[in-house]
Design a protein that fits this description.
about 550 residues; mainly alpha; Growth Hormone, Chain: A; globular
């Protein structure tokens, strides 16, 4: 296979330069994955920019566009402020282009290796933020959509899938835990990035600027450094490597867990019935969860209103100052959901190693159905503790669905092409990224337009989402093992891994120095501290906000 132009010009990006020697310490790979996922996970925290951007021109208050101005005029206008509904399209574009990038370039990632994908992701994500900063500076929302939504979304897709197949190869004994470690970073990105962005906005704010374009540029620089460090930390195991003392499960155990002993090619896998059933499973579970994430703060404020601050008043009866107080309490709710989103990614994926992927998803759907269906009752009863508890468990399962699905795919289709297969599956996320917010937002608006009280505007939505989970449970029940007739033949496997075998011999000397360094006791804790320090800071900030909610 000939090298790509990028590999020819930058040989350190070539896949063969990432093959490790057998004594490489595999625990150096998860922090590299976390470094990238913590950066791109800021996509979940972009709502921190909406309010300041909605008054980017007026600074102290929004300046509305002239009455009668059409959408095209609002897009290109420089003298009036953007509506939050216009800014919200960035969030939708994120997940649409994440899914497209993962689907289109998952196979390329398998051929070229995770390092090159991580580097491209860093340029796209950081470059998109920088372009967004320019868009804010010249007040052109099209540049914001293009920068963060499109280019940044492409970086999200490549960055998200870049570590998946790598970690599955390094941790065949702990597939769920391995992907859970990395993908929990995506859930934690907003927990770190949102308060950091808020601090930067306040630092750069002046009487003539809301401080957002400067914040975009600073974040772009920080994320670029961290993502490049993560990309350079990726390594692939040599052919035939396995953990010391580990033996693959016996045939009976593999059969019960639906774990294949072969490998299925991308072109065969994505056309299979099993692939599309898992696609539906992920789509339905994520549709329910992502709709809640996008409306978590206003939902809590509108349902409990004055009760959040000890005042007997509906949301419409609150003063401006009181609404600001409820917003602060809701920020704690959002932060608490982020914590459970993160923890769920590790907890549920690790649990799936013990109880199986199919059983794990059955739990998601059954428990989710009960929780979604009970939320309106807790809202009417005014029980905020149980209301919040339901959403915390729901968000843990939302995160757990993302971290468990790569292991689900690896069990059914093998690990050889799982990165590419997972990439195709991410179109489920793109689909859910549109369906979830649309269902929650438009049903809410319809209810309000027809006179339903704000506190009751989410009940029908909750019942609808619980029904979707029942459909997802049916799809999960229909998943069966992939027939052996679809496995790659010995000749196909030999041809596919020939490059890896040859290049390992070629670069053994190149990685010898690194392998020696890995054996030093300080290197592993040092790399882990690089990601755990910002995570700990984010947890601390979040807990402070949560304390306000239950004060």
């Amino acid at each position: 296979m000939s090298a790509t132009p990028l590999a020819a010009e930058w040989p350190l990006l070539a896949k063969e330069r990432t093959i490790a020697t057998p004594d490489f310490n595999r625990w150096l790979v998860p922090p590299a994955a976390l470094a990238i996922h913590l950066c791109i996970g800021m996509a979940y925290g972009f709502s921190v920019f909406w309010l300041p951007l909605s008054r980017a021109v007026g600074v102290t208050h929004p300046i509305a566009c002239p009455a009668g101005m059409n959408l095209v005029g609002e897009v290109f206008a420089t003298g009036c402020d953007w509506k939050i509904s216009m800014l919200g399209w960035v969030f939708t574009l994120f997940f649409v282009f994440l899914g497209l990038a993962a689907a289109l370039w998952g196979g390329w990632l398998e051929r070229e290796g995770p390092r090159k994908a991580g580097v491209v992701a860093a340029f796209c994500w950081a470059g998109g933020l920088a372009l967004s900063g320019l868009g804010v500076y010249v007040h052109q929302i099209g540049l914001l959509w293009l920068g963060s939504g499109v280019i940044g979304g492409l970086g999200l897709g490549l960055g998200y899938i870049s570590p998946v197949s790598t970690l599955l190869k390094w941790f065949p004994d702990r597939r769920g835990m391995a992907t859970g470690m990395a993908i929990m970073g995506f859930g934690g990105g907003a927990m770190i990035g949102a308060p950091l962005a808020d601090m930067l906005i306040k630092h750069f704010a002046t009487p003539t600027s809301v401080g957002v374009w400067q914040t975009f540029l600073v974040l772009a620089a920080i994320y670029f450094v961290f993502m490049m460090g993560g990309a350079w930390g990726y390594r692939l195991p040599p052919a035939g490597w396995k953990p010391a003392g580990w033996q693959p499960p016996a045939e009976e155990a593999r059969r019960k867990a639906m774990m294949t002993d072969g490998h299925v090619s991308l072109e065969v896998a994505w056309r299979s019935r099993q692939f599309w059933l898992v696609w539906a499973v992920l789509t339905l579970n994520v549709t329910a969860g992502i709709g809640i994430i996008g409306m978590a703060s206003p939902m809590l404020q509108e349902v409990f209103a004055g009760r959040l601050i000890g005042v007997a008043a509906t949301f419409n009866e609150l003063t401006t100052a009181q609404r600001a107080q409820t917003a602060a309490v809701a920020a704690g709710f959002t932060g608490l959901l982020s914590l459970f989103n993160i923890g769920g990614r590790f907890f549920w994926a690790s649990l799936s190693d013990r109880i199986g992927r199919k059983t794990t998803y059955l739990t998601f759907f059954l428990l989710g159905f009960v929780l979604y269906a009970s939320i309106p009752s807790w809202a009417r009863a005014g029980d905020m503790v149980l209301f919040v508890a339901c959403f915390c468990v729901i968000l843990s399962m939302y995160g757990g669905s993302f971290s468990t699905v790569p292991a689900y795919l690896a069990d059914m289709f093998g690990t050889r092409m799982v990165g590419a297969i997972h990439g195709r599956l991410m179109t489920a996320w793109a689909t859910a990224g549109v369906l979830g917010p649309v269902l929650v937002n438009y049903i809410r608006e319809y209810q309000l337009d027809h006179g339903v009280a704000r506190a009751d505007a989410y009940s029908i939505t909750m019942y609808l989402l619980s029904a979707l989970l029942l459909v997802g449970m049916l799809c999960n029940w229909l998943v069966t093992p992939v027939s052996k007739k679809y496995h790659m033949t010995a000749a196909e496997l030999a041809e596919e891994k020939k490059l890896a075998d040859d290049t390992h011999q070629h670069v053994a000397a190149d990685v010898a120095a690194l392998a020696g360094a890995v054996r030093q006791s300080w290197l592993v804790p040092l790399t882990w501290s690089a990601v755990w320090v910002p995570i700990a800071w984010g947890v601390w900030i979040t807990l402070q906000k949560v304390a306000v909610m239950f004060r």
